């Protein structure tokens, strides 16, 4: 079989396949969905453009989608997050060889440039024969943004000129759309018209979707996978609890115990990060803008402070907010010598990397890929000093480590698969709005993971169910319940 793809090295496929095999064992939810639906093929005819970290777990997701009948094209949603052996295994497929790949077209490798990144995103939306996909599976919303902005600018007849206000990435993005418009001035309009829906993985991407829905600009129905309870209360929290310190250890190997670790943001991701740092014996400080989350952090025993007040104390700083400019260049200059600065939120603008590079006299030294020392010149009483920035400010659990482990991703990706089936098989039942999966499916995803952990669920009697006003088979909680 011959198909286009671009990955680092197909000879890594065997190593990737071994990891996939072990991951499958740790992904009971995804595997049982594979079993349940492989005969009925609900995704037959689905052409899914996937933009999500190209890891081992994602390769298991890809092979689940294809087992259910889908065709896919895949890119990563971050320049550093690809595991090259997983990308190779997905291209080669379980039955192929590096010389005769039988898997799926993947366009992803660890360490893409921004130009390459947007080219790869363009590739997943450009299907052979001039067609487009009919479904998007997104993480962070970049593939969805390309279709929306592309269509908006095509209808305006031009891409707005690049200005000094644009980030480097947005300038690269505009350039890509300019190129595609020069080739085909209707490309994105046609692709947008062919898409039945998008399923979105993360908080930041979901935020973008609600903005589009609010202004009436959302082009197709969307399912917010992030806010399934079995996604955000597990992946964002327990996933980051695992992968934050994995990233810190692989990048720096500093002892975390006893250090002052500052976690900016105490939402789902922040809660997992704070817990893992505390588990290692760090003295955790939380910063928050939301009084409820600040109070939660205080009740858990963390000190809650303003970032300005702990700059000189913190040994490790982690941003988890999904907001921008949370750690500014001015903050970084004031930090302790060799403080570690990392972001685990979706985009790199939580830490002002552009501002850091503009500080007069600042010097950047590569310690190893995705670990950089930024040295500030002596100034006033302060001698020369430096900070260590991970993954250039991009999400460090995927840049410096391999992201979340399989078991937690099985929950997230079971939701993704169910959401794809839902939107693909029920056209017309969803408007151009953002939906969450119904609670009985959320409970189903959780249920699929209980046996593997030896959990024995208590069963309600009919009388008990009546007494608390639920069905014996669930759902067990009202919509407004917060877990
Ligand atoms: P969330 O909305 O639950 O939490 C973010 C918290 O940050 C909120 O409590 C908010 O009040 C707080 N915050 C906002 N601005 C702040 C500021 N200037 N200073 C201090 N706190 C501030 O969102 P969630 O689900 O925790 O996600 C956070 C980010 O992490 C998002 O970008 C999301 O896409 C990303 N994410 C990354 C993952 C990874 O593996 N790296 C996994 C899951 C989510």
From TrEMBL:
Substrate binds at residues 55, 139, 201, 231, 235. One of its GO terms (molecular function) is adenosylhomocysteinase activity. The keyword Kinase does not apply. Keywords: Cytoplasm, Hydrolase, NAD, One-carbon metabolism. Binds 1 NAD(+) per subunit. Pathway: Amino-acid biosynthesis; L-homocysteine biosynthesis; L-homocysteine from S-adenosyl-L-homocysteine: step 1/1. It holds the Pfam family AdoHcyase_NAD. The keyword Hydrolase applies. Its EC number is 3.13.2.1. Belongs to the adenosylhomocysteinase family. May play a key role in the regulation of the intracellular concentration of adenosylhomocysteine. This is Adenosylhomocysteinase. It comes from Barrientosiimonas humi.
């Amino acid at each position: 079989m011959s198909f286009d793809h671009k990955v680092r090295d197909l000879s890594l496929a065997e190593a990737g396949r071994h990891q996939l095999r072990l991951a499958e064992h740790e992904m009971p939810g995804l595997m049982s969905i594979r079993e349940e639906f492989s005969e009925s093929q609900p995704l037959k005819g689905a052409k899914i453009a996937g933009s999500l970290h190209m890891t081992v777990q994602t390769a298991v997701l890809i092979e689940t989608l294809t087992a259910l009948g889908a065709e896919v094209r895949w890119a990563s949603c971050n320049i550093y997050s690809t595991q090259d052996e997983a990308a190779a295994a997905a291209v080669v497929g379980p039955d192929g060889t590096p010389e005769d790949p039988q898997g799926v077209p993947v366009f992803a490798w660890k360490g893409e440039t921004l130009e390459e990144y947007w080219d790869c995103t363009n590739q997943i939306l450009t299907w052979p024969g001039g067609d487009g996909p009919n479904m998007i599976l997104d993480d962070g919303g970049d593939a969805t943004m390309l279709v929306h902005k592309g269509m908006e600018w095509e209808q305006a007849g031009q891409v707005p000129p690049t200005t000094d206000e644009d980030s480097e990435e947005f300038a690269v993005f505009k350039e890509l759309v300019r190129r595609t418009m020069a080739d085909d001035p209707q490309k994105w309009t046609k692709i947008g018209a062919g898409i039945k829906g998008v399923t979105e993985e993360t908080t930041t991407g979901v935020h973008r979707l609600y903005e589009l829905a609010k202004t009436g600009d959302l082009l197709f129905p969307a399912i917010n996978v992030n806010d399934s309870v079995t996604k955000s209360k597990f992946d964002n929290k327990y996933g980051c609890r695992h992968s934050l310190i994995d990233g810190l250890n692989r990048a720096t190997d500093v002892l975390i115990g006893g250090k002052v670790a500052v976690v900016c943001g105490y939402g789902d991701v922040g809660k997992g990060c704070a817990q893992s740092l505390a588990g290692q014996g760090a003295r955790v400080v939380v910063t928050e803008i939301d009084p409820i989350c600040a109070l939660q952090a205080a009740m858990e025993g963390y000190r809650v402070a303003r970032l300005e007040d702990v700059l000189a104390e913190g040994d490790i700083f982690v941003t988890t907010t999904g907001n921008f400019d949370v750690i500014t260049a001015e903050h970084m200059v004031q930090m302790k010598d060799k403080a570690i600065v990392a972001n685990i939120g979706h985009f790199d603008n939580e830490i002002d990397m552009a501002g850091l590079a503009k500080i007069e006299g600042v010097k950047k030294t590569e310690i190893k890929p995705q670990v950089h020392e930024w040295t500030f010149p002596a100034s006033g009483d302060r001698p020369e000093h430096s900070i260590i920035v991970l993954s250039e400010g991009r999400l460090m659990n995927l840049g410096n480590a391999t992201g979340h482990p399989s078991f937690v991703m099985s929950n997230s990706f079971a939701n993704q698969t169910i959401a794809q089936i839902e939107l693909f098989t029920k056209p017309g039942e969803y408007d151009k709005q953002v939906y969450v999966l119904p609670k009985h499916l959320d409970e189903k995803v959780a249920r699929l993971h209980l046996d593997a952990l030896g959990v024995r669920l208590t069963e309600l009697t009919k009388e008990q169910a009546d007494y608390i006003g639920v069905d014996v088979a669930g759902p067990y909680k009202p919509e407004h319940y917060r877990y």
